[in-house]
Amino acid sequence: MTHLFGVLSTGTSALLTQQRAINVTGNNIANVNTPGYTRQKLNLETNTPVYTGAGLMSFGVHSTEIERVYDRFLGVQLNNENAALGRWSAQQGMLDRVEVVFDESGGYGLNQAMSDFWNAWQDLSLNPSGTTERSMVAATSQGLADAIREKYGELEQIQEDIDTAVENGIETVNRLVAQIADLNQKIASTERGGINANDYRDSRDLILKELAEVIDIKSFENSDGQVVVSVADGRPLVESGNTWQLQAQTNSDGHSDVLWPDTTGGPVTITRAITGGKIGGWLQTRDATISGYQGQLDTLANELRDQINAVHASGYGLDGTTGTPLFDDSGSGAADFQVSSAVLNDLDLIAASATSTGVPGNADNAIALYDLRTAMTMNGGTATFDTAVNALVSSVGYDVQTAKANSSHQTDMMAYLENYRESISGVSLDEEMINLVKFEAAYNATAKMISMADDMLNTLMSVVG
Question: Of 4, 98, 138, 153, which is closest to residue 454 (Cα–Cα)?
Fold first, then answer.
């Protein structure tokens, strides 16, 4: 009887264990399309053996734990590459807008405005007293000033939009950080009881991946299963259930800085320490790339103002006056670049003649102004105005193509890592169906074994009775 009851005990444990295995397999199949789900498996062990008349022997099987099939190193790789993807995709998105600002294919860009300006002076040199030619000089001068000033303003608008994106990104970071801290607590609480918090861990990994896309982070798991997340040279965002909420603050340039809340000495600006994720890409575009374009526009505007005003002021208008600047010299940079209101109100002030006695037929000053087109006045005397404009437009195109290429590369890298993760942690329906058949067969065989033991026990009891 002892052996028959042993068979029943063996069958019972086997039956329950195979049922658990079927449940785990069914859960895998149910979550085959769930984002971030990690395949689970039931680890089985034989029951503790006991001494019998035939020697040491175990009776049945039991399950030890439900384990995630997970590669932690691959998870770190995914977060790092996702941060790079976030950075380059953010840069590409903003630089695509910059490319539209400097688009030369529509028939009117900086190059066309410059060309019209120089051609107007050439036409004036052929007829220095012509009203039409003077009107064209004023109009193209205004067009050039407007083009430079408007492009500078459009770049400022993109920077303002980046500020808004950064502020929204900070809100997203704070929301995700709070979710990670909450999951930390749930995981620690669950696993203190010896149960793997697989679903909570899946959710946390998915949120960490999303967080990495927004801002570059470092993370590691401590001894009790809680993840520690840091940003900007090791400043913590999450530690156990504690969180540090980032803040946005307007700096002296009028743009949004990212602040980390140091509880001992007040908020610390970490803007320059953020190099990855969407926030890193936006900050790089705003503070380095677009600021560089603005610097080139400022240099172009200042050199045009200084060089053209110097020549124009040395000449004489139709009314015999001299010393008149063509461009307003009360400001500086591209934002203040505009034609002198005096010239716009009185076209006779346009100085085409090089001498007072040459008025109205002398055109030497108009020729001298046109000659500035080919003069080496930019970049320390190594480039012309036209070359400087071409260099600016080319640098925009290069930066856009670089961002697109890197974004495409990171997209491919993420696709490769995601596929690799799926090969390790993803659910294969074919594999799960095989497992389902295997566990079902074991379940049926165990049920038959229990039925057989029950029949034998009934027979024995009838004999004894």
Answer: 4
